[in-house]
Design a protein that fits this description.
It contains two helices and 13 strands. The protein starts with 6 loop residues before the first strand and ends with a strand. The protein is mostly beta strands. The chain has one domain. Strands 1, 2, 3, 4, 5, 6, 7, 8, 9, 10, 11, 12 and 13 form a 13-stranded mixed beta sheet that branches. It is globular, with a radius of gyration of 16 Å.
Length: 205
């Protein structure tokens, strides 16, 4: 593999998983998901990004995975990666390296956790922001929306600081108002289950 250049990304993040609220996997180094396994969709909107001289501004990425039974961080995940169809081939190559962990940085851990990458697909991303709800749809694959869970102070969500999380330093607790996935032989409905929102700033290698 060619030498990995310096890269840096910043933007917005959202996720949906099958755990009860709040997902226990961000509260310790060796968590076991609520259902004994994790089925999750993670999505990044890159506001500003560079991979060496290559710009990545405005592109979307989603990683969907299911873990074997047991501890979340034991690896062996079955995963699928979705890349923004607006990206050029060099941009897609860079995004695939970053979001499978092969470009290092905080996301580098993914390279050891993903056991089988069942597919990589360039797709349209349909995103919406409506009040406290953010949604993402990838036609014929993924459709989920998460709504911020209200905190004690009016107009503020519940924040989780310093979580065990590869993307965020602060997570905002959310609930999936809908969450459906079916592609690459994987399928689930996580409606009503856990979600998180955050901003992110990542760099590597």
């Amino acid at each position: 593999m060619a030498e990995i250049p310096r890269w840096k990304l910043a933007g917005e993040y959202m996720e949906s998983c099958n755990c009860a609220l709040p997902c226990p996997c961000v509260f310790g180094p060796n968590p076991v998901p609520t259902e004994g396994f994790c089925a999750a969709a993670l999505a990044w909107r890159i506001a500003e990004g560079r991979y060496g001289p290559l710009g990545l501004d405005g592109l979307d990425v989603a990683l969907v995975f299911r873990t074997p039974p047991g501890r979340f961080r034991d690896g062996g995940w079955t995963a699928a990666l979705y890349l923004d169809q607006r990206a050029t081939e060099p941009q897609r190559e860079a995004l695939q390296l970053i979001f499978t962990g092969r470009a290092g940085g905080r996301l580098g851990r993914l390279s050891a956790l993903i056991g089988t990458l069942v597919g990589v697909r360039a797709v349209p991303f349909e995103r919406r922001v409506e009040g406290k709800t953010r949604s993402l749809r990838i036609p014929e694959a993924l459709d989920f929306a998460v709504e911020t869970v209200a905190g004690r102070h009016e107009g503020e969500g519940i924040s989780i600081g310093n979580p065990y999380h590869a993307t965020a330093d602060v997570l905002v607790l959310a609930k999936a108002t809908r969450s459906h996935y079916r592609d690459f032989g994987l399928a689930w409905d996580n409606s009503g289950r856990n979600g998180y929102l955050s901003t992110f700033s990542l760099e590597g290698p």
